[in-house]
């Protein structure tokens, strides 16, 4: 049973100390070395600089308590005032509407400082911390989390050994008013397809009409991958997509999402579906295929009468349960080679999978989710949206695979926070309520009857 | 009747003075300001420099003689030793095999110095010059002949008024051993097709599957333009292509051309046709369509999960008689818009014709060609190949349209001269025989019975 009185005290403490917490976030935003590109190993001169540290920490070690691992990242996207910010990106300000504006305020310093504030609030309020907490805060997330996977595998049986569940706070509410728990992410298979013909670029006047043009072949192949309405045409690829159940379909009906929000996000009305539910289902639980571009063809402004000798098309498929990257690779390679053979071209093809990541889905009925859901009801007086995302957050899969524990994505910020954009913000209320949410979530975990 | 004795004397004079002529070509190659980019109006800082002069000159003014206009250009492509030249590009050398190697040796200083040598040889041999000669040597050919068309129109009724026929020496033999006269060039219509959707580039994970992707639309449209075997699919575009007559087909049988030469030129065996005749016909007398590339999509090495907001495809169609650029534009625009409508996309399309140039074809039975053909037989003891070219030489059409006179392309160099490439060369024998050829051509003109 959750001690409601203790929680009320905790909330009061958080409210009373909120200006201090905001100040700490301001300090965190101001630390310029948190921009990983400045200290990462990807410097332009090829010098191998040291990776920024992955911060591990343990708070509490009581065998009678659950152990919860929280993940966040302290590195941020680059930001310059000249990019168009209304204020200096590393000097966090608060707007009259209570928005904390600064690079990293929402992605992802708000959440990580929030976890630390949550510990401190318990100390200030003199309330026993309900779980053993382990933190894992990295500094390379915006650069592919280099070094993290190795560390997690290496420490799976050591530092991470007693973890009972994982909580990642590095995504966003679906909309602006209703909190969510996120239980699924799409995976990805990324490909390049190279078509080679002549040994060098040719003049289209001299050779056009007499040689098999690699660009023509590639365009024909690409046109056979996906329809303009988004249907993937690769034989067999859709076969493993999990069927939509009634229960799942039902869940979509209560989500805080409107097409008009989507239209303003994409700055056009060029959406395929005319309703919210199909739109979200095609973002979250159906695969998609995007043609990203072509390397080796003429891509500059202006015009050039070139007949490119070798062109490399790039595309990717977003994967959903129960698609498997290896199986998708087989299907894609076979399909492309079969279709290429039908073209009757003397050019040559090569297909390469650049990257594969499985889709991720968690059981939203697990105690980790139930606790989070109860905590949302406590703080926000409503049931959270149960959401998935169309993109991937690779660390989610890494933790799940390495630790084999339930992973929960519990966002702090709103859908319009503008992570990676100019004027990134975190609403003060999201920050303060978020700290309370983290606390309530941990207390709910401590009291839940599991296993 | 041609005075054979006078011609024999002329040939001897040319042979005797050939080292002087080579020296003059060496001097011409050495003049660095002949690189038009250095003096043209296209400088990098946007400063409007003066155009290099177009050199006009008249030699002879006898109303009883024909007046022949010869065109050439004294500007050259840029060249740096670092590009891979075996010798300094502006210090012309002669190899042991008798190749004069230097930038511009063949394109196009050899021919223009050749015309001047031809005049001088007549003076040295004390032979009456058989025609009135007018020269038009420009210095912007490699940069689009800026300023030339205006001058030709302006002077059509003045300087160019009495011209009876035009001779352009700025192309090449089809092969390495047999001279040719060139009587046709393909035209071109160049297009860009822009497909716009979202207001900004999107993340393919978040939005893939829910929005109409401009890249997918463009790929589908592009796939409907041309087949992998080069057949143009645009409704009506092939209707105006002149039918191949038996006589024309016959002409292809004697041409000096082999697929193996073509294979070494393109550094692959990816030709569409397995025989020389169809190959040349599709280079010269059938249209072709090349997809050049796409602006706005991801075109760098590596991978990026971008869903491009606006993509602009570039393609061009090579035109042949009796295709008309305006008619082709209409057909292309209608076809693209019809096909786009079939896609059912909410994106928008715009089609723009960037450039249109008519195909050019001359009557190879005109006295200008007959004279040149006879001259070739005199010098090379064989009938010339009658060739066309797949690309365009815009000045050809400009002269024909402005002066309404027969235009002949009479090349001096061989097919392997490497204009625009490193180690550009002109064989000494082509240079020396070329000067004789120019002379014999003018004498044949003087004696031909025309009109
Ligand atoms: Zn983040
Ligand atoms: Zn030239």
From TrEMBL, chains A, B:
SUPFAM superfamilies for the chain: Zn-dependent exopeptidases
Peptidase M20 dimerisation domain location: 183-341
Organism of origin: Dentiscutata erythropus
Record-stated family: Belongs to the peptidase M20A family.
Gene3D superfamilies: 3.30.70.360, Zn peptidases
An example molecular function term from Gene Ontology annotations: metal ion binding
Single Gene Ontology BP annotation: proteolysis
Keyword Membrane: no
Protein name (Swiss-Prot/TrEMBL): 24098_t:CDS:1
UniProt keyword list: Hydrolase, Metal-binding, Protease
């Amino acid at each position: 049973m959750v001690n409601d009185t203790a929680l009320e005290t905790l909330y009061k403490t958080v409210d009373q100390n909120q200006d201090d917490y905001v100040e700490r976030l301001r300090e965190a935003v101001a630390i310029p070395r948190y921009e990983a590109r400045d200290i990462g190993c990807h410097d332009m001169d090829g010098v191998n600089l040291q990776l920024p540290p992955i911060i591990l920490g343990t708070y509490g070690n009581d065998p009678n308590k659950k152990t919860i691992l929280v993940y966040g990242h302290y590195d941020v996207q680059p930001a310059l005032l000249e990019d168009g910010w209304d204020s200096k990106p590393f000097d966090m300000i608060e707007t009259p509407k209570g928005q904390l504006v600064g690079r990293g305020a929402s992605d992802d310093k708000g959440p990580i400082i929030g976890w630390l504030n949550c510990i401190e609030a318990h100390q200030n309020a003199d309330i026993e911390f309900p779980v053993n907490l382990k933190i894992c805060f990295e500094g390379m997330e915006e650069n592919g989390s280099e070094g993290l996977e190795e560390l997690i595998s290496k420490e799976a049986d050591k530092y991470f050994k007693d973890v009972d569940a994982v909580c990642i706070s590095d995504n966003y509410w679906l909309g602006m008013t209703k909190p969510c728990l996120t239980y699924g992410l799409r995976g990805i298979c990324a490909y390049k397809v190279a078509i080679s013909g002549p040994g060098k670029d040719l003049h289209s006047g001299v050779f056009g009409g007499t040689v098999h043009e690699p660009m023509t072949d590639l365009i024909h192949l690409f046109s056979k991958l996906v329809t303009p309405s988004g249907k993937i045409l690769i034989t067999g690829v859709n076969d493993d997509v999990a069927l939509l159940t009634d229960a799942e379909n039902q869940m979509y009906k209560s989500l805080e999402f409107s097409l008009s929000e989507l239209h303003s996000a994409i700055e056009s009305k060029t959406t395929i579906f005319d309703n919210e539910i199909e739109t979200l289902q095609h973002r979250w639980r159906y695969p998609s295929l995007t043609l990203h571009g072509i390397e080796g063809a003429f891509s500059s402004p202006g015009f050039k009468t070139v007949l490119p000798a070798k062109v490399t098309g790039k595309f990717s498929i977003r994967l959903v349960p129960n698609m498997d990257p290896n199986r998708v690779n087989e299907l894609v390679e076979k399909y492309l080679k079969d279709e290429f053979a039908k073209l009757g071209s003397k050019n040559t093809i090569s297909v390469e999978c650049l990257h594969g990541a499985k889709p991720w889905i968690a059981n939203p009925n697990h105690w980790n989710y139930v606790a989070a859901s109860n905590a949302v009801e406590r703080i926000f007086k409503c049931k959270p949206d149960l959401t998935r995302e169309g993109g991937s957050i690779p660390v989610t899969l890494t933790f799940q695979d390495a630790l084999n524990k339930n992973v929960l994505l519990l966002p702090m910020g709103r859908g319009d926070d503008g992570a990676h954009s100019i004027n990134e913000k975190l609403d003060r209320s999201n920050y303060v309520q978020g700290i309370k949410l983290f606390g309530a979530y941990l207390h709910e975990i401590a009291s839940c009857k599991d296993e």
